[in-house]
Every structure is written in structure tokens, then in C-alpha cells.
């Protein structure tokens, strides 16, 4: 509806045929012709009465009544379930809801036009403007304009997400969001997060406990895919009295495809990039008493040099190496693929001696770019996949790191 918003009932008017005053001479001639012609029995003034009757019909107020809840000027309005628009003795033809920055709230008019409700929650601490129009059975319009302000939450939560905005990652990288408060309404939170890909592919979310939500496709991402994550959490009541305070869009790109397969029995790792075998590297895996997990694991962190203390992962006093070179994390519990300078050269490719990690030959200080560990580090990115097989251990838990690929698609979506 063009023009300024109309408050209350509006009037639809037609174009009325006006009467043009005739010169006196012409009027007299007209009267003379009428008198001489005869044959007209129409009472004088009949045309004026009909015009007045028509004007009364046109100018009658619309019978449609627009009702908006919450009432005009309301404060501390709930972000979900409070906003509703309805029409009595008519049907809604237009409903527009916007915040002070001009952002529209998506909604849908019910069949028959009796009501309208938003398709999303509202943001907290935000002023909204409502403009609604309805028409009655005669097509006459009635409009209503209101404003209200949503509540200011006392308790809030956000989601810490990975990967980072603008990053390029490997084909195994899921979208992983860790919430600062335990969520008791996971459906509401998940509805407020949208993950899309170009080229398009079905993407589904899966909850690990009540504070972590991961998204992935059925199979690894295709190389070159552009992924966009929209976090519309502002105003979502994730648990009673605790509201999201985050509205953010991030995107990342999937780089080349690299999947490396560790065979713990053969003591080798085959690095495959874009379907082609790039390199076979001798390795050492977990010793018989400290075996390496089997399964699909995703590189989540990279450190050129880092400290590894067995006490932090349940191996109290067994080791504390302050300068482990070329380390890449595969699990939250401490599984890494990393350089090893303390084992003899002959160990790699022939024996399993580690505390559960995958070790590659390296030098102390990570200063030799020609070692197998340095090559692997330089040719890997966050999100690359490392698959371990033929280890005498169980399969890694899907929530131990970014390792949801160890669940079938049916388990993931179930």
C-alpha cells in the first residue's frame, strides 16, 4: 500500500462525476429545448438524490477490524509467542513488521486472511513497528499501526563456533558450536541456526549433550564448497529465563580434498589428495598397552612446537616433553599426529611405541623442513581427515574432537 500508513479505518473513494456550471444563456436554451421536446416524466432533482446515495455507499467505513497483540506501546514483550495480528469481519491483506533498523520480520498470513504470525523469534531489547491492513467484504480497507519493545534479558548465552570466519579448511571440517549455557530447548536453538552450502548439499545438525551442536553433510564436503553459517540466536530462549545474545553470519571455504590413512599394523600413512596418492610416510602408532583409536579424525589444531604432559591425559609421570614438534590435534582427549625426535630412525615404519599418538620422524626444534613430520605439517590444514585402521583399540567417540564422521547418516539425523 503506497503512501503514509493509515491509522484506524480508511476510506476508499471513487471518482465522482462533477457538474460543470453552464453559462446562463446555454442553460436557458437547454431548458427551452427540454420544454418544447416534452416526453420526459423524470422528477426534477432525481439525479442529485442518486448521486448522494452513491456517495453514502462509497464513504461508509470499512467493517474490518484489525487487532494487534501486544497492545500499542507495550514494554518487555516476550520474544516468542507474543506477537499476533488478526482481522475481524474481514481479512488481512498486508502485515509488515520491522525493527528500528528496518529489518523485516518474516511472517505468514493464514489461509482466509484471519490471522498472521511471525515465522521467527524476535530479537531482545528491540523496538518493533507493526503495520497491518484488512479489507471487508465490500473491499473497503482498515489499517492499524502499533509499536512495542521486547524484553531485556537478565541472563544470556552465546555459541562459540568453529571454523573461523573467512578460513579455508579441509573436507572433514564440521560446523561445531559450543554454548556457554546448557540448552533445554534444543529445537528453538537449532531453528535459529542456518547452515547452507554452495554448491547446495543437505546439511543436518546433531546435539552432543546439551551444550554442543555440530552440523555436517552426509559425506565429506566437496572441494571448493562455500559454507555459510547464520546465527540468529538473539532473543532465543535456550533455557527458562536465559536468552541468546548473538546475531552473526560467518562463512568459510573448503579447500582441496586431503584424507590420510594410517595403518597401525603396517606402520604406514598414505596421504591422498584430490583422489591421488601424494606420499606414503613411515609412522609409529600406539604401543600395545596404549593403543591408538581407530576411526575418522579431523585435524582441529596445529602447533609448530608444543608441550605434551602425560599428566593432563591420565598418564601421570610417564612423560613430559616440552618441545614436541609439528603437532596436530586429532581428539579432545589428547590424540595427536606429531613429530618425534626421541625415537630411533628405525622405529618409524616398523614398531608402535607411542602413548596413543601417531608419530613421524622429526628433529628437535622443528627447524628441519625436510623431515616427514615437517612435510606433513606443511601440507595439512585444519579440517583435513586422518583415518586410523588396524589398531587394537576401539573406534573413537564421535564427540571426542570434531569426529562426528564416525556416526552413520541415520545415527546423525536420528
UniProtKB/TrEMBL annotation:
InterPro entries for the chain: Big_10 (IPR041280), LD-transpeptidase (IPR050979), LD_TPept_cat_dom (IPR005490), Transpep_catalytic_dom (IPR038063)
Catalytic machinery residues: 338, 357
Entry keyword annotation includes Signal: yes
Gene3D superfamilies, per the entry: 2.60.40.3710, 2.60.40.3780, L,D-transpeptidase catalytic domain-like (2.40.440.10)
GO biological process terms held by the UniProt record: cell wall organization; peptidoglycan-protein cross-linking; regulation of cell shape
Keywords: Acyltransferase, Cell membrane, Cell shape, Cell wall biogenesis/degradation, Lipoprotein, Membrane, Palmitate, Peptidoglycan synthesis, Signal, Transferase
Superkingdom of this protein's organism: Bacteria
GO molecular-function term, one example from the UniProt record: peptidoglycan L,D-transpeptidase activity
Recorded coiled-coil stretches: none
Residues of the L,D-TPase catalytic domain: 258-389
Example of a GO cellular component annotation carried by this entry: extracellular region
Pathway: Cell wall biogenesis; peptidoglycan biosynthesis; Glycan biosynthesis
Name the UniProt record assigns to this protein: L,D-TPase catalytic domain-containing protein
